[in-house]
Amino acid sequence: MLRARAKAFGVGLSLLGACMVVCAAVQAGQPGGKPSSYSPVVIQEEFAATMARMKAAKPEVMKRQMALLEERYDLSDRPSGLMMSAGRRAVQEGVRVKLPKGVTWQQLSAMTPEEIRDKGLWPKGFLPLPHPNHPEGGMVFPKFHIEEIKKQEGRDLTRFDLDLDLPDHLLPEYPPPIYLTTRPDLGDVSQGKVVTIMNYYELFNGILNPKQLEGLRLLVTPFPQQQFNMTEDRRSELPHRGVTCFDCHVNGHSNGATHLVGDIRPQAFRHRLDIPPLRGVNIQRLFGSQRALKSIEDFTEFEQRAAYFDGDPVIATKKGVNILERGSQVHFMAEFQSLLDFPPAPKLNLYGRLDPKKATEAEMRGEAIFFGKAQCAVCHPAPYYTDNLMHNLKAERFFKPQEVNGRWASADGPIKTFPLRGIKDSPPYLHDGRLLTLEDTVEFFNLIQGLDLSEQEKKDLVEFMRAL
C-alpha cells in the first residue's frame, strides 16, 4: 500500500509539473505547450472576452496575494516619530517580517545557513516577493498616483485585472520633493506638486536650460507600454496613450509602483521590481538592479526600447515603441536626471560621515557598527554609501527552491549596490521590495552575513541609516 501511495504521489507531482510547463508555455504564447522567449503577437481572443475573464479572476488573484502578504508580514500602520524629507509621510518602524513559530531572531542567528534551510526556518518574508499577479506581471501603480494623474491629465492608469498589493503607509511619501544639484538654494523645486506634462513648464522654466527642460518634457510624456497601449492585449479598459518615466519614478524619486524585470525567462524566474529613486544618479555607475547598464543614457534608451515591453522588441513594434534619438533626446533626458539630488542630510559632514556635534549617541554608535562589526561599508562606503558594484548575497543558502504564487523562489544572482543616502525616503527595500522597513533590512543582513548583532546594535544601526 505504501508503494502504491508513493507511486500515486509521484504521478501527482508529474502532473503538477506538466501543468506548470503548459501554463508557462501558454503565457509565452505557445498554446501547443512548447515554451518560447516571445510573447504572442497575434491575439486570438476578443478584447471584451479577455477583459471580462480577467475582471472575473481579479478578486481571487488579489485575495491570494493579500493572504501571502498577511502570512509574511505585519502590515499595520506603525509610524515612528520621524518624517520623510517633505514631512508628508512618517517613516514606519519595527520588524514586519513574521518569524516561524517557536523560533527567535537570536536563535536563527546562531544557526548555520544549512540548518536554517534543512529545518525550513527561513522567514517567509525573506523569500523573493512575487508580483501581485506573477504569471501576468506588468506595471502596477498605487491608487493615489492613479487618482492624481487622472485628475491632471485624464489619463487612467487603472488596470482591470489587478491592483498594487502593498498598503500606502509602507510606500514613499507622495508627492516626493525634488532637489537639484545645480540649485540647492531652492529646496524642493516641485513646490509640493506631482510633476506632469501639465505643469512641468511652469515649474521649471527659468530654472533649467533648454536641453534639460526638453529632457524633463520627455520624462513626463506618455508613450505606449506593454499593459498601457492601443492594442487588444492591453490591460486598461480603454485604448491608452501609455505611461511616462515619472509614473514610476514620480518627481525623480519613486512611488512604490512595481513591475517585473524584462530580461529573464521563463516568467516564473522573473524578479519583481522595487522601483528605485533617480536621486543621485550623477554619482552612480551602474543602472538596473541586475542589468549592469553603464550609463544613465544606456538605461534611458533601454527602458523605452525594451523594458517597457518586457524585453520583447517584436511586441514593442506592435504596440508603438518610442525610438528615442540618442544624440539629442536621450542626452537631454539623461542630463535632467543627473541633476536630481539626494535629500538634505544635515547631520552629515563633507565626507558623508556624522558630525558628532549634531548626531545623537545612538546614531554615533550605529555609525561605528556600520563601518565596523556589521561590515555594511564594504559595499556601502561613504559619502554616497554605494561602491557602484554588483554583489551576490547567495540568499538561496538559507532555503530550498520553491514556487510562491507563480514566482519560482531560488537564486537571485548579483544585484547592484544601491546608494543608502536618503534611504529613509525609499521603502520598501531590497531589489524586489521584500523588506518593508529598515528594521527588516537589518535582520535580513544580520542573517545573510552571519553578524550576530545584539538587539541594541540593531536599533543603533537603524538610527544611523535614518540619518543618512
What does this structure look like?
With 468 residues, this protein is mainly α. It has a single domain (72-466), classed as Cytochrome c-like domain (Cytochrome Bc1 Complex, Chain D, domain 2). It contains 14 helices and eight strands. The protein has helices spanning 2-27, 47-72, 105-109, 113-118, 143-153, 200-204, 210-219, 245-248, 296-305, 313-319, 326-337, 361-371, 438-448, 455-466; strands spanning 79-83, 90-92, 258-260, 272-274, 390-391, 402-404, 407-409, 415-416. The strands form four sheets. A two-stranded antiparallel sheet has the order 1-2. Helix 7 packs across helix 11 (326-337), helix 9 (296-305) crosses helix 11 (326-337) and helix 13 (438-448) packs across helix 14 (455-466). It is globular, with a radius of gyration of 23 Å. The protein starts with a helix and ends with a helix.
| Helical run tally | 14
Gap from first CA to last CA: 64 Å
The CATH superfamily is known as Cytochrome c-like domain
CATH topology value: Cytochrome Bc1 Complex, Chain D, domain 2
In short:
The chain is mostly helical and 468 residues long. It is 33% helix and 5% strand.
Salient structural properties:
468 residues; mainly alpha; Cytochrome Bc1 Complex, Chain D, domain 2; two-stranded antiparallel ribbon; two-stranded antiparallel sheet; disordered N terminus
Compile the SSE list and pairings.
Blueprint: H1 2-27, H2 47-72, E1 79-83, E2 90-92, H3 105-109, H4 113-118, H5 143-153, H6 200-204, H7 210-219, H8 245-248, E3 258-260, E4 272-274, H9 296-305, H10 313-319, H11 326-337, H12 361-371, E5 390-391, E6 402-404, E7 407-409, E8 415-416, H13 438-448, H14 455-466
Antiparallel strand pairs: 1-2, 3-4, 5-8, 6-7
Helix pairs in contact: 7-11, 9-11, 12-14, 13-14
